[in-house]
Design brief:
Distance between the termini: 27 Å
Structural class: alpha/beta
CATH class: Alpha Beta
Strand content: 5-15%
Bound molecules: S-adenosylmethionine
Number of helices: 14
CATH superfamily: Aldolase class I
Radius of gyration: 19 Å
Length: 367
């Protein structure tokens, strides 16, 4: 299989339904994963530190327009305790994720990042939405290593419809990804698969954009409708020819993971919780066998975890962090893979720019 797939070839793979052909895709992705990032599966301990959000995304249960959700923000002590537990589990990374919460004050979080970096060997990944360049710079200087910001879809019209901009916003998510790179973060992005209004052509464009952005981490999970959102209720119905609508299925998600591995061989690619949610039995394992090499066990304290309801029925919502650890270790070993050690960052990137300098601007993707 040609790793230099064109956009049209990517699209025709997305439309492929023949199981014999698809088996070739799974095998090619698994082989390239083995040859580039190896057999280790790196575990990133996920901490959902706040479910407050100032945005009104039409797909997400954390939207500020969802009045039925009780809101929480973890205290500094709770975050630090959980980070120490993540380090004690032997995971190499803590991921601090939240809605776009104005209550997460920049200096407060910088102090937490500094403390984690001084007191544990963890890499720190942030996933806090669209924050100002000053905040992103401060957190990088405090020691944050990576930033995750999915562009969700490369179709600008669909994106505006499902992710209404906030007043005064000047930078797009693609602009922010470039800025994050120039600040010296390892940069992750990704998409939801099967968003209403998403066409095969635009999903092929998404995968091509992963390649052009040369991302370090790429997450793709199925879109799961939330009943308290405009997209979930059908109140918002982006128009699209039914034959062009990408289904939000498990198989389509595996295709995206596999094709992403082919076009971005060195990237760290998670087998996501959303995938495990639509196939609790073996979704995680199949993701790992079709291109993925990362798992993000949920380490949020259980009483908060229930409230981080971006979509309903999330997998592993009631497990303790301890139970998750042994269940995942067993699942990973059962498919002949090993548990990664250390931070597990991208292996082959050579030049890491200085966080203080803005001089490593990359060329803009054609968005
Ligand atoms: N606020 C940050 C942001 O927007 O990047 C991080 C938190 S946000 C809840 C994390 C990711 O959840 C989003 O990038 C989106 O892809 C995913 N998500 C939200 N709603 C979803 C849904 N209904 N189905 C599947 N994934 C969803």
């Amino acid at each position: 299989m040609n790793p230099e797939l064109t956009k049209s070839e990517i699209e025709s793979w997305l439309r492929e339904t023949d199981p014999v052909e698809l088996e070739k895709l799974w095998q090619a992705a698994d082989r390239i994963r083995r040859e580039t990032v190896g057999n280790a599966v790196h575990l990133r301990g996920l901490l959902e530190i706040s479910n407050y959000c100032r945005r009104s995304c039409a797909y997400c249960g954390l939207s500020r327009h969802n009045p039925s959700l009780a809101r929480y923000r973890m205290t500094a002590e709770e975050i630090l305790d959980a980070a120490r537990q993540i380090a004690a589990f032997g995971y190499g990374t803590v991921v601090l994720q939240a809605g776009e919460d104005d209550g997460i004050e920049a200096a407060w979080l910088a102090e937490i990042i500094r403390t984690i970096k001084q007191s544990t060997p963890l890499a720190v990944t942030l996933s806090l939405g669209e924050r100002s360049l000053d905040e992103l710079r401060l957190w990088r200087q405090a020691g944050a290593d990576r930033y995750l910001l999915r562009f969700e879809t490369s179709d600008p019209e669909l994106f505006r419809l499902i992710h209404p901009p906030v007043p005064g916003q000047t930078l797009s998510r693609i602009d922010l990804l470039r800025q994050l790179r120039s600040l010296g973060y390892e940069v992750g992005s990704g998409v939801m698969v099967g968003i209403p209004g998403q066409t095969y052509r635009s999903l092929a464009e998404d995968i091509d954009l992963f390649r052009r952005l040369d991302l370090d981490m790429i997450g793709a999970g199925p879109y799961i409708p939330h009943p308290h959102t405009p997209l979930g209720t059908g109140l918002l119905k982006p128009s699209v020819c039914p034959a062009e609508q990408v289904p939000n299925t498990e198989e389509m998600t595996y295709k995206v993971i596999a094709l992403t591995r082919l076009v971005c061989p060195e990237a760290n690619i998670p087998s996501t919780t959303a995938l495990a949610t639509i196939n609790r039995e073996s979704g995680r394992e199949l993701g790992l066998q079709r291109g993925a090499n990362i798992v993000m066990p949920n380490c949020t304290p259980p009483h908060y975890r229930q409230l981080y309801e971006i979509y309903p029925g999330k997998a592993c919502i009631n497990e303790t962090a301890q139970a998750c650890q042994s269940c995942l270790a067993q699942r990973i070993r059962s498919i002949g893979r090993t548990l990664g050690t250390g931070p597990g960052g991208r292996q082959h990137r050579t030049a890491v720019p200085n966080p203080q300098s803005d001089s490593d601007e990359r060329s803009a993707p054609n968005q």
